[in-house]
Amino acid sequence: MNVLDRGRDHALALFRIVVGVLFVCHGAQKLFGALGSKGAVSITSWPMGPAGVIELVGGTLIVLGLATRVAALVASGAMAYAYFAVHQPLGLLPIQNNGELAAVYSWVFLLLAFTGPGAWALDRVIAARRAPTTATPARV
């Protein structure tokens, strides 16, 4: 096993955390008008409101490594919807329709749905606590 193999879970965790934070920032822009946004949108405003909720809540879950696979799958679907409903009608290729970010997020979150959270995830802490403990036989 080489150094890159040994660091795989930690690299995946860092990847998950960075991408999750970036996704949370998009949600904060939409819902709160934060981080240089031109203003907040209502959560009832379709599709920006629900997208902001998915970005904020889903991104937070992904950062924490909590329900990572489900959150990532929902986020992947939301970004695929954003690409095909908003960007793709403007041009065939992502470079033509300004949909690169939606396309990349969709694939990144699909990858996380399949790989899981990596190290430093609440999913792992919860699974470890739920795992049955095996008693060590007493010496006689």
Automatic annotation (TrEMBL):
One Pfam family per UniProt: DoxX
Subcellular location, record wording: Cell membrane
Keyword Transmembrane included in the entry's annotation: yes
Superkingdom as given in the UniProt entry: Bacteria
Membrane association type: Multi-pass membrane protein
Chief subcellular location: membrane
Membrane spanning residue stretches: 12-32, 53-84, 104-122
GO cellular component, one term: plasma membrane
Cross-referenced InterPro entries: DoxX, DoxX-like_oxidoreductase
Keywords: Cell membrane, Membrane, Transmembrane, Transmembrane helix
Family: Belongs to the DoxX family.
Name of the molecule in the record: Putative oxidoreductase
Lineage, opening ranks: Bacteria, Bacillati, Actinomycetota, Actinomycetes, Pseudonocardiales
